[in-house]
Structure formats: C-alpha cells, structure tokens
Amino acid sequence: MNLDVISWTPHHTVRFLDQTLLPKQEVYREAATIDEMVEAIRMLRVRGAPLIGISAAMGLAAAAAREAKGGTLTPEWLEDAAARLAAARPTAVNLAWAVRRMRAAAEPVWRGRKAPAAVVLALRDEAQRIWDEDAEMCAAMGRYGAELIPAGATVMTHCNAGALATGGIGTAVAALYTAHEQGKGIRVVSGETRPLRQGARLTAWELAKAGVPVTSIVDSAAASLMAKGAIDLIITGADRIAANGDAANKIGTYSLAVLARAHGIPFYIAAPRSTFDLSVSRGADIPIEERDAAEVDAAPGAEVFNPAFDVTPAEYIAAIVTDRGIVKPPYGEGIRRLFD
User: pTM higher than 0.85, yes or no?
Assistant: First the structure.
C-alpha cells in the first residue's frame, strides 16, 4: 500500500493529505511555518504517532530553510520552534523523540559555526532519515505481525494504524496488508472509533482501497461480535509504551483488551521502537491528552469528558509486535532487549 500522505515541495514547504476530510475528499495542504505544522498536528490533519513525528521533523526542516533564506535562522529560533512542535500533542512519544533527534542533528553544526545553509541541510537529512527508518520499521512489523495471523482469520483493529499514520505501510495494519499479500484470505473488522471515527473514515478507506476485505462497525458492536465467535484476534497500534509494557492508544483500545480477555481472544499491540518510552515505568505515568468538548455531540449544558487515549495494562497484551521482532511477557525484560 503506497499512499501519498506526506512529501517535500521544492519551495520549502511540506505537502500533506488532510485526513480530517477523508474519505469524502482527498485534499492536500502545505505547511510553510511552525505555526502551520503545529495546527496540522493539533487538528489531526496529520495524525498517528509515527507520522506526527515525521511531520514535525519535516516541518522543522522546511521552516528552517525559509528562516535561513530570510537571514533569521538562529539557535534560539530552532529551540523555540522545536519546543512548540513537541508540545503540539502530549501523548504520542514519537513527536518529542523526533524533535530531539532534529535538535541533536543541528547542534554540532551550530558548534562548528557553519553557515545556516549547513544547518538546513543537516535538518533536512535527519528528517528524511526519520521518514526512511519508519518505512523500514513498518515493513518489518508487517512481516513479524503476519506471523500471528492464521489463514482465514477475521482480525479486529481500532482507530488507524496504517499507511495514513506512518511513513510506510503502518504498524498494526502493516500486519494486515502483509497477511493479505501472503494470500491468507483474511477479513478485517474496523471499529468506528468515536468521536472522530478514524476507524470508519481512515482504516476502512485505506484497506478497501488496497483490496483488503473490511467491515466497519460501531464501537459498541465489538462485544457482540466476540460473543458470536466472529473475531479471531485483535491488533492495534500504540502512541506510547511504558517500560513495563503498558500501552497508550486511542480511547476505546482498553475496552477491546478487556473484552478480548473475557472471550479468550488474543490481543496484540504493534509499534516501532520509537514508540517505547523507557523513561516512563508504567502506564499510569503516561500523560493523556484531553481534546476539545466540541468534538463530542452532547446536549447544550452537559459537561464533556473527551480523552484522546486510554492505557491498556501489559497483562492484557498477548504480544507486542516491533520492528525488531515479537516481544512476549515478561515485557520489562523483553523491551529492554530491544534497545541493547
């Protein structure tokens, strides 16, 4: 699956597919400034933990090129721009991770007192590396994840962890694409994912576009399908994974994990190493973004609780698919080995 989700332009902007308009419209926009990229990330025009990191890196490089052209690129500008990007969304660890990499790439160039053009080149090269590495990690996760999917399986997923969320073919959905390409004859059930319906709007759209049989359901129908024996396994992505294996993902993921346990269905997470945060020991310490109440269609005067993510405890996760292989419990030891 090769979607034109994000790209460089010749005139120092980043071109991206506005995912808020899918599936009805395929509209591309450009971000030329830090403010425009922050807005794109906050408003979910670009979304998915890996793609957020890639977008921030590319946006920083493109905006730096424009600053250099105007003679205003300084270390202070770069620090401020990096901080604003990193704060755009607090839960997805890939965002802060990518921004740290960009700052680290620029630092030795600044120390060497080289021209601003050299800083821009270093930033552009690092952003491209982040993108290329993610595409490679996606392909690897697809291969490893497909090993967990038997022929003829019906697989449930939640939100969107596919090509629209990454620099490659996805994290969780990469396993679905690979299993489909291997001729396993799988079917996919995609939860709608309220309130912004990323599962129905995005996952179902890209799977159907790729010819993978997919059925979209309202989130509250998941338990009914499991009770009927219609689901063989569940695989989702993650936005941050703690050192003990607790995983934060789109709100509703924890519910699926609990239901899977109740029905004896294996529940898997797929995420690249950039999504692991070893500085966080457990899921309770992961910051959870709360989004605008306007996203929820509630009665006037009613209070709204609109968290973007929840945390699935490691004990509910049968395995974590990574770009370095499949990690099984006990997760603390297995996760540490990923970074040896």
Answer: yes
- The pLDDT value recorded for residue 1 is 59
| Tens of pLDDT, residues 80-116 | 999 999 999 999 899 999 999 999 999 999 888 888 9
Instruction: Dig out the tokens for 284 from the structure.
Output: 């309770």
Q: Are 60 and 107 in contact (CB under 8 A)?
A: no
Helices (H) and strands (E) in the chain, counts: 11, 14
- The catalytic position among 134, 219, 239, 323 is 239
Q: How far apart are CA 238 and CA 134, in angstroms?
A: 14
Amino acid 23: pLDDT: 96
- For residues 47-60, give the mean pLDDT: 96
pLDDT digits over 22-32, tens only? 999 999 999 99
Predicted confidence at residue 113, as pLDDT, reads 80
Q: Cα 24 to chain center, whole Å?
A: 22
Instruction: Name the helix (H) or strand (E) containing 178.
Output: helix 172-181
Is 285 designated active site?
no
Is-contact 130 101, C-beta < 8 A?
yes
Domains and CATH numbers, the chain: 6-138 (1.20.120.420), 146-338 (3.40.50.10470)
Rounded CA separation 223/231 (Å): 10
Give, in degrees to the nearest 5, the angle at Cα 170 between 56 and 269: 105
One-letter amino acid for residue 71 of the chain: G
Residue of 158, 177, 125, 166 lying closest to 274 (CA atoms): 166
> pLDDT grade, residue 14 (50/70/90)?
very high
* Residue 107 CB-density burial (10 A; 0-12 exposed, 13-18 middle, 19+ buried): middle
Q: Would you state the structure tokens that stand for residue 145, as one six-digit string?
A: 């994840």
Residue 14 · residue 8 · CB < 8 Å: yes
| Phi-psi group of 211: left, alpha or beta (phi > 0 → left; psi -120 to 50 → alpha; rest → beta) | left
